[in-house]
């Protein structure tokens, strides 16, 4: 049974870091403003010697937007959380310091590791199950580990501390709105499911192109790159949701079992020069901003040959999907942001003679942030009724009132692991891309270049107009 224990204290480790200020605290504020975190106490901890005033200023600044848009009850709840919050300086890897802090907090506690993976691992290694208050949950940011072996080791470390249903491996892409929009589209429409297979679908593309450059994140990003940062951490899960067979329920066990089944059947096959592509941006202009060459960014080591744009073709060896390429792409410093899944259907087997115009394959586009739906359809006319024309049916999908990290935090404080990544799945995501990492390290696949602000290499399968 899934634990439904409600969290009384949210402890954020790495509270002085960028993730906390930019994403976690604004997400929490929206959650509080919507009355979904009543009575929660917020505690921050980090290595920086912050004063209570510095921490209060950070929290207040991050809560400001949510407070301005909230009603009277929401503003009151935000003010109460701000008033009660506290900050502690500590070294999470030092024996006893984190355990001492936990002993003084009101249980149940959710411990959010907003830290680099290797620091989170060390912090967990110095804890024992006996040092954790009853009902403690451990929340780990992705990437989970640095490879399949380290992910297995981290799983073992966590399993020695708390039950699996008290472990939340965060993937903020799996917000409830996005997940359930995909599941509702897939399984609530009888006209889609019969054609959702290799007989009718030619390819599936999942694209997350950003118009942001490095933005001061070299310390993390230069050691990761687009393949690990986005494809391993996020896009493989979106792929799995698009590819799963219908679960019997949307309970956490059934849904996460279905996701795991897809990922176990997934792989990227050699030759990797054909099935994968990588590139790095050079100097250019995005909108009104001049962007320097990636290797000229502060903190970048050119010898690492870190890619800022990656694309892989994943095969899923199941009856439903054998032979259908799932093409996953993500990159930075591109001229236009593209966040979508594109399902391309196979052409009709026969178009009766007498029709004019181009009968191109139909496409279904699912947009992420904002969540949208577009279906391309060929119809007759206007004008000559024998001429086919392409029209696009558009719809806006239901959005959540919460920010993505608010949706993540809601699952954490209600003890619902539905949208958390399960331990075996985290290992499989690394297994899928590890052969590619090794091939790229041997320069088996050339590192191409593209101008910042441009569309990326023109000959890639996912190129605009490609």
From TrEMBL:
Keywords: Carbohydrate metabolism, Glucose metabolism, NADP, Oxidoreductase. This is Glucose-6-phosphate 1-dehydrogenase. Pathway: Carbohydrate degradation; pentose phosphate pathway; D-ribulose 5-phosphate from D-glucose 6-phosphate (oxidative stage): step 1/3. The keyword NADP applies. The keyword NADP applies. NADP(+) binds at residues 47, 91-92, 142. Belongs to the glucose-6-phosphate dehydrogenase family. Residues 12-181 form the Glucose-6-phosphate dehydrogenase NAD-binding domain.
